[in-house]
Amino acid sequence: MGKQVNVIFGTGPLGMAVMRELKRRGVERIRMVNRSGRLSEEAAVEVARGDASQLAETVELCKDAAVVYHCAHPGYTNWPTQFPGLTRGIMAGAAAAGAKLIYGDNLYMYGQVNQPLTENLPHLATGKKGLTRAQMAEELLLAHQSGKLRVAIGRASDFYGPGVKQSSLGDRVFGFALSGKPVDLLGNLDVPHTYTYIDDFARGLVTLGHEDRALGQVWHVPSAKTHTTREMLGLIFDELGSARKIRTSSRGMVTMIGLFHPMLRELKEVFYEFEQPFVVDHSKYLAAFGDQGTTPHDVAIRETVRWYRQAMGE
Questions:
Q1: What does pTM read for this prediction?
Q2: N or C: where does the chain have the smaller number of CB atoms within 10 Å of the terminal CB?
């Protein structure tokens, strides 16, 4: 049958968005991989059960693959112990198939910088999650440079959209707002902060999967216009038809609550993102692949609210 399959490791919001984008582009054979072998929603794709950290399994799961999308991740608190092994497993599967590997990455490896984020910044992260992300990206690019694997890395900022719950613009904003609770955010709401719509992230990754000139490089996928977080909340409240109360947590509050809350304890490492301007430059991508358009935030927010309403049974 030849190398006709697009394999997606991870069926969370990013994996599902990549699947939707592949379908939109007419890709017929899509194989989605997770630990359960089931999807949370109906989709006319192959679904395979597997543990990406097991090399023999990933080799079999990547059979006949043309492109492999790495959208999988362990629990947020388990990144240092589980993420590198999972990534190496996916690398082994893609290499055995001779497939391109497209990795959906974030921005933690850069650490705290006082300028817009570009792909050529050094990896200055000092926390364990940023160091883990840096290590994996470096391993992937080294594998490409040595000829073991063909790799491209796509990075996006904090994302939001259908299915996205564990995010700074996730359940504690959209879910809380629809439930009548105060929305809950971090840091300074009045500094610019780039937010990426999940479908725009997926569009960028699939473009990298279709463009051989993307290989061997890191790319910041395009996001819509950067606003302050307060301006983003204004757009969300406009869509909801009324404002909601806003609650913010300072670094000190997160430190105190983190003594008893593992997830908040982990967030201390990247709290700088919400204390100062956090702006992502995607001009390298635009120069290479042109302006494919991003989803305006008001449209993206409308789709996100619609998904949350359906998920909450409204």
A1: 0.95
A2: N
